[in-house]
Amino acid sequence: MIFRRKSDGLVIADRAERAESFRTRLLGLIPRKSLAPGEALWLDPCTGIHTCFMGFPIDAVFLDRDLKVLRVERDLRPWRFSVFVEDARSVLELPAGGAEKLAEGDALETA
Which pTM value belongs to this model? Predict the structure, then answer.
């Protein structure tokens, strides 16, 4: 799955996987050793995350139902908890630095 910003087509992730079952959302990125540039995990539904048991930092992008960016948490290191984003529907987890060009209010689309 590809995530891009609607306004200019900027590709945020070109190899995103969707975690939609309880098990895949529970494990998230824990089994992984890293995320390469362009990779992402889309947790749907999700309103908050943690990086416990992970060995690398990530950027977390909280999205509403329309894939509008509500919040970006950059460089979330292992053993941290994100804030709870009440209006979020999903979270896109990217490698640290992967959300560098995103801001609150950006609209994303998938392909």
Answer: 0.96
